[in-house]
Amino acid sequence: MGAMTADSTPLYEHPDRNLALELVRATEAAAIRAQPFIGKGDKNAADGAAVDAMRAFLGTVDFDGVIVIGEGEKDKAPMLFNGEHVGTGRGPSCDIAVDPIDGTSLTAAGRQNAISMLAASDRGTMLDASSVFYMNKIVTDGDGFGVIDIDRPIGDNIRAFAKAKGKAVGDIRVAVLDRPRHQQLIEDIRATGAGTRLMLDGDVAGGINAARYGTRIDMCVGIGGSPEGVATACAIKALGGFIQTRLAPKDDDERQKGIDAGLDIDKLYEANDLVSGDNTFFVATGVTDGGLVAGVKRLGPIIRTESIVLRSHSGTIRRIEADHLVSRWL
User: Fold this and answer.
1) Mind giving me the DSSP string for 146-178?
2) CB 239 within 8 A of CB 150
3) Neighbours of 97 (CB within 10 A)
4) What are the CA-CA distances from residue 314 to residues 16, 166, 219, 237 (Å)?
C-alpha cells in the first residue's frame, strides 16, 4: 500500500499533486521535437515527431494511464491510441487525453496557436466520446453559470452574458472555428454588435482562453471535436469556468454508433458529465506562439518552452518557462 495521508487514504489511490509537473515534461518533449518542422509544410512529420517524444516521456512517469482520448481513428495512429496503457504501471490509475499537437496544420504553416496538450483524471471519470466525432460547445468563465444556455439563440446568450459581466455587447469577443459550417453562427454573433475571433484550428486553446479571466476572449462557441471538448473540460474545472456541450453526429450512422457506445445524443453535457470528479489535470506547452502560451523557440544553445499547468483539486494555474540544452535534444 502507498504512503498514507492525514485522513488515512493511500496517496496512490488518486493522481497525486506532483503528477502534472511530471506530465508537463511529455508536452515539453513533444513541442521541442516538433520545433524543426514549424513552417515546413509537412504536418504528418511534425505530428509523428511529437507523438514519438510524448510517448517516450509518458513511459517514464510513475502512473498507470489509460488513453481514453488519443490519436484515435481519425489519424490511424499506431501509438497513443485509445485504450493504450502508458506510464510505468506504478502509482495512481488515470484516464488520459492526449494531443501531441493540437493544430498540426497550424504548425506546418507556421501559424499561431498550436499547442501540445495532455489532460488526466482519476480512472473511469473521463467520457469516451470518440464514437461521435463532433460536439457543439459554448465556453465562458464562471460568470456564465445561470446565464448561458446552449439551446438559446447565440444573440440571447451574448446579450445576457454582457449584462452579467457589466460590459457593452460591442465589447464582447467570441472565438469561433473558421469553418463553412459556422457561417450563419458568425453572422448571428456579429449581428448583435459583438466581435468574433476566428480560429483556424485548435479550439482547446480558444475554450481555455474563454474560461480564463483577463484574456481577450469572452466566449468560445461552435462545433468542434468531441475529444477536444472533453480535454477542455479538464482545464475548465481547474479554472472554475463554464462549459455546455451537445454531441453533433454528422449522420444517422454516426448517431447510432454513439448510441451503441452508450452516449446520450440528446443530453446536455456539462463539465461534470465530460469529466467527473474533482481531480483533473491539464498541461499544455506552446508549439507556435498563441494567446495561451508562447511557442517553442531556439535561442542559440538552448530551446525555450512555455507551458501552462492546471489542477482542479487545488484550483491552481501555473506557468512554467523552461530552457533546455539543444545538445540534449536535436
Assistant:
1) TT--TTS-HHHHHHHHHHHHT--GGG-EEEEE-
2) no
3) 27
4) 11, 29, 24, 10
Intervals of the chain under pLDDT 50 = 1-11, 74-75
Q: Backbone phi, then psi, for 227, in 5-degree steps?
A: -55, -40
300 exposed, middle or buried (CB, 10 Å; 0-12, 13-18, 19+)?
Answer: exposed
Query: Please, are residues 12 and 308 in contact by the beta-carbon 8 Å criterion?
Result: no
Q: How far is CA 196 from CA 106, 124, 157, 182, 264, in A?
A: 19, 37, 14, 12, 31
Structure confidence by residue, pLDDT tens digits, 107-125: 999 999 999 999 999 999 9
Q: How many CB atoms lie within 10 A of CB 41?
A: 11
Report the length, in residues, of the chain: 330
Q: Which residues pair with 138 in a beta bridge?
A: 221, 244
Q: Give the closest residue to 238 by CA, choosing from 165, 314, 329, 178.
A: 314
Beta bridge partner(s), residue 302: 299, 325
Instruction: State the alpha helices, DSSP H only, in the chain.
Output: 19-34, 43-58, 104-109, 154-165, 183-191, 203-211, 226-239, 252-260, 271-274
Report the Cα 193 to chain-centroid distance in Å.
29
d(CA 65, CA 57): 13
For 8, phi then psi, to 5°, come to 65, 25
Whole-angstrom distance, CA of residue 172 vs CA of residue 195: 6
- What are the tens digits of pLDDT across the range 239-261? 999 999 999 999 999 999 999 99
Cβ atoms of 63 and 248 within 8 Å: the answer is: no
How far apart, in whole angstroms, are the C-alpha atoms of residue 156 and residue 135? 21
Please give the Cα distance from 241 to 151 (Å, whole number): 18
Whether the Cβ atoms of residue 246 and residue 201 lie closer than 8 Å to each other: no
Among 189, 191, 250, smallest CA distance to 220 is for 189
